[in-house]
Amino acid sequence: MNITDQLLEYSKELSVLYVEDDDVVRETTSKILSRFFDALIRHANGKEGVDAYKSANFDIVIADIYMPVMNGIKMTKQIREINSEQVIIITTAYNDYQYLLELISIGINYFILKPLEPAKLMDVLYRACKKIHNERYIEDCYKNLEDVLTRQTVELATTKEQLQIEIKRREQIEEQLRVSMIEGDDIFKRVCVAFQYAIIIIADSGEITFWNKAAEEMFGYTQEEAIGKELHRLITPQRDYQQHIEAYEYFKQTGQGDFFGKTIELEAVRKDGREFPVELSVSAVNIYDKRQAVGIVRDKAVRKQNVRKIKRKHNLPDS
Fold first, then answer.
1. Could you tell me the fold of the domain covering 196-305?
2. How far apart, in Å, are the Cα atoms of 144 and each of 50, 157, 254, 266?
3. Percent of the chain scored above 90 by pLDDT?
4. pTM of the entire structure?
5. Which residue in 170, 197, 204, 206 sits closest to 302, CA to CA?
């Protein structure tokens, strides 16, 4: 079964709110969406999107970041205030990395890089629709289970064998829910794995809990080598180690710090011992009710090379 058939299996009964200010992109993408969703509402800015959301229920919200009147981030925050469980897909350009941490902290489910390619769009839509289907299936299972428990409690109030059967069924459904949550977490990780910048998550202990492919390439450590290691001992120059440890201890106690909420420049160390300049953006997030730090790291030298390439391409002078 190809991706089109797979998506159609889950999408037809779902409704979509699509918000995009670019008329050409909106019309082109809407043609694709209308193939899979019978209920599709389109708007050109975040304010219109919020107003539409308040007047109707939507299974999926798709929005751009840069829009007039109200941008995608503000729109998403207002929608999250109305429904914290809303499935939201953000379309973003490569240079939107500075917003990634804020969007992650809001709880965005999926990201699609622009320009939107039909195959990638359908893949993300399939995963989003399947997630909704699985969650509703689990809700139905719980409801059916409650109905069964209520009925059989009346009929077999003191029957030990029946109680054991229902307990076992409840545990099986709870396991399905746990697996679904893990799959949702895995979606986030797959997004980060594909991202061009190094993304690192560390627990309040200072140990690395997530290390994407870009981090492997940047620092030379494989995921197996990095996970569970203390971040600062792994990539911080020895002369800066104590300062970074003290800063992280302050973060653990207060949830704040000089590194958080902005981009800073500092030196890092590769596995082979070579130092190199990086740009670091750090945000504090709660994952499973535990405070953790999410960092996005860019190799400063690589960024400068990319800037020079763009300038040469457009015949702009180097400054």
1. Beta-Lactamase (3.30.450)
2. 34, 18, 45, 56
3. 33
4. 0.48
5. 197
User: Which residues are paired to 62 by β-bridges?
Assistant: 18, 89
pLDDT digits (tens, 9 = 90+) for 32-76: 999 999 899 999 999 999 999 999 999 999 999 889 999 988 999
Report domain extents, the chain: 3-126, 133-192, 196-305
Q: Which residues contact 276 (CB under 8 A, 6 or more apart)?
A: 267, 268, 270, 299, 300, 301
Pair 195, 92: CB distance under 8 Å: no
Which of 164-168, 195-199, 272-276 is least confident?
Answer: 164-168
